[in-house]
Amino acid sequence: MKPILVACEESQRVTTALRKNGIEAYSCDLKPTSGNHPEWHIRAHLEDIIGEGSEWAGIIAFPDCTYLTVSANKWYKDQPLRKSGVLVGEARRDAREYAIAFFMMIANRNCPNITIENPIGIMSTVYRKPDQIIQPWMFGHGETKATCLWLKGFPLLKPTNIVEGREQRLHYLPPSKNRAELRSKTFQGIADALGYQYSEYLKGENK
Predict the structure, then answer these.
(1) Total domains in the fold of the chain
(2) CATH code for position 96
(3) Average pLDDT per run of 10 along the chain, which is 207 residues long?
């Protein structure tokens, strides 16, 4: 079986979950991995390693949602520059166009199995509606964070542990240098579900 590429993942949570279930997987990100297996991590621009897509049995991608989410829409209007450095006006609109192109670069790869994860945002309009919207509380975490999955080949993700609790903990994290990184990490329960369910699917597909 060809390997799996887990794109835009520095934590290696999904990569490790796939490996635990017998699937050769590699994470890819510009940042060094915070996981325990740097030998499974490709530190490079995704465009330089994704190829046509046919080199991979599957691509699971977590593209940056900063300019794709529906939040902070007010910053897209023309206005004075912000002291915080937050992009506004034309610069932010240009960043959104790049983010859309990056998302579509992944979606259009010639790979039989693709999953792209992102919050509710503009891709539902400029691309298509997601195939599935999942929540952390479906996978053992008592929190809310609506997460969209756009799928090609890969099956819908089945809930594994529906629990009580509907708290937006990540939304209320205090400002910090790594706030965005903490908010973007895949919940462990979701990573475990992806690792197991996708590995079973891939093994069945390759019998």
Answers:
(1) 1
(2) 3.40.50
(3) 97 98 98 96 97 97 94 82 86 95 98 97 97 96 94 98 78 49 77 98 87
